[in-house]
Amino acid sequence: MTTYSAVTTYSADSLRKCVTAIFEKAGATSANAQIVANHLVESSLAGHDSHGVMRVGQYCLAIDKGDLRPAAEPQTIQRRGSVTMFDGNLVFGQVAGHIAMNLAMDDAREHGIASATVRSCYHSGRIGAYAQQAAEHGLIGLVMVNAGGAGQWVAPFGGVQPRLSTNPIAMGAPGGSYPIVLDFATCMAPEGKIRNYARRGASLPEGWVVDGHGVPSTNAQDLYGPPAGAILPMGGAVGYKGYALAFMVDILAGALSGAGCCSTEEKGPRDGITMIAIDLEHYSGAEYSRQQIATLIDYVKSCPTSPGTDEVFTPGELEFRQAQHRSEHGIPLDDETVDDLQALTARFGLEWDAR
Description:
It is a single chain. The protein is of the alpha+beta class and 355 residues long. The protein is built from 10 helices and 12 strands. The protein has helices at residues 12-25, 30-45, 56-65, 93-111, 128-135, 191-200, 239-257, 286-301, 317-329, 335-347; strands at residues 9-10, 75-80, 83-87, 113-121, 139-146, 169-173, 180-184, 209-210, 216-217, 230-231, 271-279, 331-332. The longest helix has 19 residues, at 93-111. It is globular. Mean pLDDT is 95; it is low at 2-6.
């Protein structure tokens, strides 16, 4: 999550209205615009600014270039039992992902476990949102995404040139007052987070990237070059673990969905997504599973803390607390994101009540 200080903040409601109006003017249906605006604002609320409102300018540019079709709808390619495949038709990835997870959840309630894949959609956003979508409805969700062979930012373990996408994975389960959600890229940081550092002129933590000559760097701009650098796989000295996980995500999201895996072939920005939903009732039972999850939460949080640590957190707890804080105090935006929103509202003749 991103931490800011001494910056201007904006209310979630004003941002939702602004972003929805921008996407509608850019050609999205009202339904699509609302899904994407809610997704972006919720990501910013949770502190994942790299996948939040910062993306509005990028998405509008993609619409202008024809890489994103804002009024499209995903098309069902194939349904076999509890397995469904969608073609995203270059729609917002958030729209395709929302629809795919809803269908997977419906099928899981019937079959116990179900999956849905998507190919050829635009950027799918914060994939933890889809795992959370399942968790909030009492199911377990598992989500994996690759960029369909594009978006190669990540070097394999032992390498210094990009060969993989950031290939994130997310899992969600019903918790107590908030869902349990795991959501991370299989590299040291998603590209969007590094872009966020670059926008703020902040130095990267050590060990995240190498520059175009393979030299470790804390300058976010060194990722983009020229010459372009690479993000390192998650794990540092044991980065072979993150690399192996990224490799498998590329197979599970790219090969299963039909989006394709990384190769020398140049491809456009089209995500591949695999989603799995699991209904607890078909296994050990929803009540028993929830009791076990609650016991696990209490047991883990009772652990004595290490020096300098005040509390043990469960997956998703920090995001939950951040969303509460930002709902009350506002969402901080960097200057470039504010400039993007102001330029787009001016372009479309919109008024933005910024506060």
